[in-house]
Structures are given as structure tokens and as C-alpha cells.
Write a structure and sequence with these properties.
alpha/beta, 2 domains, 469 residues, seven-stranded mixed β-sheet, five-stranded parallel β-sheet, TIM Barrel
């Protein structure tokens, strides 16, 4: 029986044609509005390509789009293959997440090419090129299924039938994806993108197996469980009806309550023969609880890199002034201030400089976990140091404060350049110690040609774009 009285209901597990769904992001939003939903999460498989378009299209239409992703992984060590982890409230422009998604996209494409080769060997006349024409983002098995259904309607009437005969795990045309990570990796990338991780549809497993998997999920750092899911529609092999499905949902809701997990769920809508959008009533309160939970956002760090006297501290302090006027609490971590306190026993050898910068990164990481928004002004002269900081902290914007060396030397606010030239300082970045310019920073501000407010507002705009403020 269809859910026709949705009122303030939501659906936090939805796919578009940017992975293996049939509708584009705008069509999904339109359908959700038609069904009366007040919020949907776009959770395409291993990609975030559909999120921005859906958010933009939904603006002003009375519906909220939650940025998400569904990451496939394996836990072969405990006997589980193809475990899915959903991430909600992610920063869909996070560099690490985008790099991760691009790598998986390549793996998926290679995997599907091999599957199609096997299908051809089994006597079916399809080519990689014709299937690829229907792919808008991540290459999924349903793309192959739809091509087979179109060319061989007498043999395949549904995607599930193709899975059962050819493409399911262990079937004649199935090929494993290379280098599939585990739950810990999926959870880590979601957290680094500022999101919350959920074990997807645990009810597809036997109850005792799902409990083992849930235990491993928590150990890996997972935060929540999908309690709501239309197993009675999507998983016919379970042999349950709507009433039994409600009891299964109740089982996982009780588990969430007793074990202190967060709760989510959705229809796993794909369109076509999985036309399930809004089938399971999920109240708006579920979204409100997620929105208010402390772990929804772990804070963030803006990392200022550049030569001494380029303007890192000046700009970071101006940003703090501007954002404090908005009622935000901002932490400025200035390298010189830290040198006179927590790093006062460190010298200026390469090893001691690296120790100092690692200490700053550690402080930012810990503050970020507590929900703080940090502005770290640190020369950090090498790509490796900056990349280590990005990976450690997760929610991270790298700002290159660019200024010609001669301008920095002319400013010489603290007299360090002069001390170097007089021989009072043995080593100094930009002089005898090289400074590696960032290859791909999130923001570049030129302080020799722009004033402080212009630079500060450029950085604030990026912070707003990334959802940090």
C-alpha cells in the first residue's frame, strides 16, 4: 500500500542518474515535491555529481536537499561483501572526497568493461560503448541491465532478473571491483568531508549477522544506522510483507535507542522498477535530531600558508573580527604566538620546524573535533607538510597568501629578514630555506595588490561556499 499522506515526511536515501538511478537530480526534486516530501538526501553511489544541481534547483521550492553519498565497501575479514555506508551532511566539494570519488569512478568503469566482456562471451550482443552512452556519472550495473532489458526483453524483464541471472555476486558475469576499501575508510572519508556516517539497510542480512556487522561498524567509527527501509519492496528474497517490514524497522529503532546510535533511513529510490520514493513514512523529527546532534559538524580549519610578512596573521585576525560581529566564535592560531608558548623549546632546524607544524596541525585537529572554527597562520613551506595537515584535520581550506619576497622583506614587521641578513638568524624560509608554492590551494590572495578586507572577504566567501559558516 502506497504512502499517500506524507505531510512533513522526508527521504534520506535517494539516487539519481549521476550514479545508477533513472531520473536526473532536477526530476528527483520535482517528484519529491509532487509526493509532498519536505526533504530528500541525494546519496548516489560513490559520487556527488548530482548534489549541487539538486540543491540549486530546489532553492525556493519548499523542499530541502541534504548532500550525501553512498559508499560501497567490503568487510571480507568478518565475512561481508558489498557493505554500504551512507554519508549525510557532507561537504560535497571537499578535495579528499572528490579525489576519492574520482578514483572509484575509474575503478567502476574498468570493472563494468570486464563485466560486459563476460556478457559478450555468454552470447549477448552489447558493447561497452553503447552502455556508456547512458552513464551520466558513476558506471553502475543497472546501466548494463537496462541495455540488456532493451535488447533482450524476452529474457530480462527487470533489473533484478539481470542481477539474478548474470550480474549478482557469484553470477556468470560478475567481476569484483579493484581495491574496494572497508568501512573504516568509508567512514573516514565521510568524516573528513564533515558528514555523518550510517550503516545502510542492515536488514538485508540475517539479524544475527547484522548485529555483528553493526558492532564492527561502530568499532570503525560509524555513527548511525538506517532504521527505515522498504525491505518488503526491494528485497523479495526476504519474503516479508509490509507488516513484517514495520516490525523489522522497529527492531532497528530499538537497537538505535538502546545502543545510542543516530538514526536515518529512506527508500533507496532509483526510479524504474524501484519507484519507491516516499514509500516509507519518515518524520521530519528524524532530520531535526540529526541536524541538532553535536557530531553533525566537527568544526573546520582554514590554513594560511605563505612567506613571513605576506599577511597571514593580519588577514586571519581581520576575518575573526568580521565573523565575531556575526556572533561566531573563531580561534586564531598564530605560529609566532605558539612559538612563544607551546613550542617555546623548539629550535629552527628542519626537524624542529616540522615538529612545530605537526603540533599546530594536531591542535587544529583536536579543536575541529570540538566544533571550533580555526584560522591557522603558519608558513608551512612544503607541500608534504600542508598535505599532512589536510589529511589529519579533514574539514580544511588551504589559503595561499601570495606576496613577492621583496615586498615581504620591505615589510619585515618583526625584523626577521634583517636579522638573517645580519647573520643573527642562521636559517630563514624564503632565503636559504626554499618555500614551495602550493600546487592547488583552495584560495589564493595576492596581498601586494589587494587590501586586507578584499582578501578577508575572498576567504570568507570560500568558507560560506564550503558550509563552514
Amino acid at each position: 500500500m502506497k504512502n499517500t499522506d506524507l505531510m512533513n515526511n522526508i527521504d534520506l536515501h535517494v539516487h539519481t542518474n549521476r550514479s545508477d538511478g533513472e531520473l536526473d537530480p532536477q526530476e528527483v526534486v520535482d517528484l519529491a515535491i509532487k509526493k509532498g516530501l519536505k526533504a530528500v538526501a541525494i546519496t548516489d553511489h560513490d559520487v556527488v555529481d548530482g548534489v549541487e544541481g539538486a540543491i540549486s534547483y530546489a532553492s525556493g521550492k519548499g523542499i530541502e536537499v541534504i548532500p550525501g553519498i553512498e559508499i560501497g565497501c567490503d568487510e571480507l575479514g568478518i565475512g561481508f561483501k558489498e557493505v554500504h555506508v551512507v554519508g549525510l551532511f557532507i561537504d560535497y566539494k571537499n578535495k579528499d572526497l572528490l579525489e576519492f570519488a574520482e578514483n572509484i569512478k575509474k575503478q567502476r568503469t574498468n570493472q563494468k568493461r570486464k563485466m560486459i566482456d563476460k556478457i559478450r562471451e555468454l552470447g549477448y550482443d552489447i558493447t561497452f560503448e553503447e552502455v556508456a552512452l547512458s552513464v551520466k556519472g558513476a558506471f553502475g550495473r543497472p546501466h548494463i541491465c537496462r541495455t540488456l532489458m532493451k535488447k533482450y526483453p524476452d529474457k530480462f524483464s527487470s533489473i533484478q532478473e539481470v542481477f539474478d541471472k548474470l550480474l549478482g555476486i557469484g553470477k556468470p558475469a560478475y567481476v569484483d571491483r579493484e581495491e574496494r576499501g572497508g568501512m573504516k575508510e568509508a567512514i573516514s572519508i565521510i568524516k573528513r568531508a564533515g558528514g555523518i556516517s550510517f550503516l545502510a539497510h542492515p536488514g538485508v542480512y540475517k539479524k544475527e549477522d547484522s548485529l555483528e556487522l553493526i558492532k564492527a561498524f561502530r568499532k570503525a567509527g560509524g555513527e548511525g544506522i538506517e532504521t527505515y527501509y522498504p525491505y518488503h519492496i526491494i528485497c523479495p528474497k526476504l519474503g516479508i510483507d509490509a507488516e513484517e517490514n514495520s516490525r523489522l524497522i522497529g527492531f532497528y529503532k530499538e537497537l538505535v535507542k538502546s545502543e545510542g546510535f543516530l538514526e536515518s533511513g529512506g527508500s533507496d529510490f532509483h526510479g524504474g522498477d524501484r519507484d519507491t520514493l516516499g514509500e516509507i513514512p519518515i518524520d521530519w523529527d528524524v532530520l531535526e535530531r540529526l541536524r541538532s546532534c553535536e557530531c553533525k559538524k566537527e568544526g573546520a580549519t582554514v590554513w594560511f600558508t605563505g612567506l613571513a610578512c605576506s599577511g597571514k596573521t593580519t588577514i586571519s585576525k581581520r576575518i575573526r573580527e568580521i565573523l565575531c560581529e556575526r556572533g561566531l566564535n573563531i580561534v586564531v592560531l598564530d605560529s609566532d604566538d605558539l612559538r612563544s608558548t607551546v613550542s617555546k623549546d623548539f629550535g629552527y632546524t628542519k626537524e624542529e620546524r616540522d615538529r612545530h607544524m605537526r603540533l599546530v596541525a594536531d591542535m587544529c585537529y583536536l579543536l575541529t573535533l570540538q566544533g571550533a572554527l580555526n584560522l591557522a597562520a603558519v608558513i608551512s613551506p612544503t607541500d608534504s607538510i600542508r598535505e599532512d595537515a589536510r589529511k589529519k584535520i579533514g574539514s580544511f581550506i588551504e589559503v595561499y597568501v601570495r606576496c613577492p619576497l621583496e615586498v615581504c622583506k620591505a615589510r619585515d614587521v618583526k625584523g626577521h629578514y634583517l636579522e638573517y641578513e645580519q647573520g643573527k638568524l642562521k636559517d630563514f624560509v624564503g632565503m636559504n630555506i626554499p618555500y614551495e608554492e602550493p600546487v592547488n590551494p583552495d584560495v589564493v590572495v595576492d596581498t601586494d595588490t589587494n587590501d586586507v578586507d578584499t582578501c578577508a572577504n575572498m576567504i570568507i566567501a570560500k568558507m560560506e561556499e564550503r558550509g563552514f559558516i
